[in-house]
Design brief:
Layout lengths: L1 H9 L3 H14 L4 H13 L3 H14 L5 H12 L3 H14 L4 H13 L3 H13 L9 H16 L3 H14 L5 H13 L3 H18 L4 H36 L12
């Protein structure tokens, strides 16, 4: 039932996925895995109260488990209850100080407090854990992209580029977010042609992942190319204006207009 529910969720069939999660819990009402999966499903569907009930049941069934504490910490952070979220994630790390999901969640909380250096250290530690998401998996690629975003805030653009390239090349299902991040960094460096190529790759990757979004993606492509074209034209106009101004700044007289007749 759980495998079917997760597959239906990926296919965008939430009502059928919910029925499969319910069926799994009817078979094993106290299954922590089923409760956490049900909670994650409800959380992703913005059904926060249902997610809280599922996470609370999971924690009740296994009070010393780390996973439900991490899930509750994320939910509390989402609700803006930062003190409670901190207590929950610290209790998780008190049980297992090297749990990668707890470390990654603590990084999220640190970012909420503008502690980007501390968040980066936690993300390094989380990705280095033996029990971190498997290399090339979607969660692993997502964590790399998160670390890249924090690295940029910390001034480590080279490290960010390395993480984004790794995620873009090695992720099994592709990683449009990594390609988009590389495009953004290329734009930041005024490498407009490179940025355009990376955004094209992003759109192609998204189309492969969600064929039903083709028309939306084409619209995004048109908008992206329009923005890039405007940026290039603006740079060209500015360059021409500076070139015309340069002789005047060096004392050269302006060109004499042709005499009439």
């Amino acid at each position: 039932h759980l495998a079917a529910a997760q597959a239906l969720q990926v296919l965008g069939r939430p009502s059928e996925a919910a029925a499969q999660y319910d069926a799994a819990l009817r078979v094993q009402p106290n299954s922590q895995v089923a409760l956490l999966c049900r909670g994650d499903f409800c959380f992703s569907a913005a059904k926060v109260a249902d997610a809280r009930r599922a996470y609370s049941r999971a924690l009740h069934e296994r009070p010393q488990a780390v996973a439900p504490r991490v899930a509750m910490a994320r939910l509390l952070h989402h609700e803006g209850q930062l003190d409670a979220a901190w207590r929950m994630v610290n209790s998780a790390l008190g049980i297992e100080r090297r749990d990668p999901h707890a470390l990654e969640t603590r990084a999220v909380l640190k970012m909420s407090e503008a502690d980007s250096d501390g968040a980066l250290l936690d993300l390094h530690a989380a990705l280095a854990c033996a029990s971190a998401p498997p290399r090339r998996s979607p969660p692993w690629a997502e964590w790399l992209c998160n670390r890249a975003a924090v690295s940029v805030l910390c001034g480590d653009v080279r490290g960010a580029v390395a993480d984004l390239r790794t995620a873009a090349v090695e992720a099994r299902a592709g990683c449009p977010r990594a390609l988009e991040g590389l495009g953004a960094l290329a734009m930041r460096a005024s490498q407009y042609a490179k940025a355009a190529a990376l955004y094209d790759e992003t759109l192609a990757a998204l189309e492969r992942q969600a064929p039903l979004l083709t028309m939306t993606l084409r619209t995004m492509a048109i908008l992206t190319m329009t923005i890039l074209t405007m940026a290039v034209l603006t740079m060209a106009i500015l360059t021409m204006a500076l070139e015309r101004q340069a002789p005047l700044e060096h004392g050269s007289p302006p060109p004499t207009p042709p005499s009439p007749g």
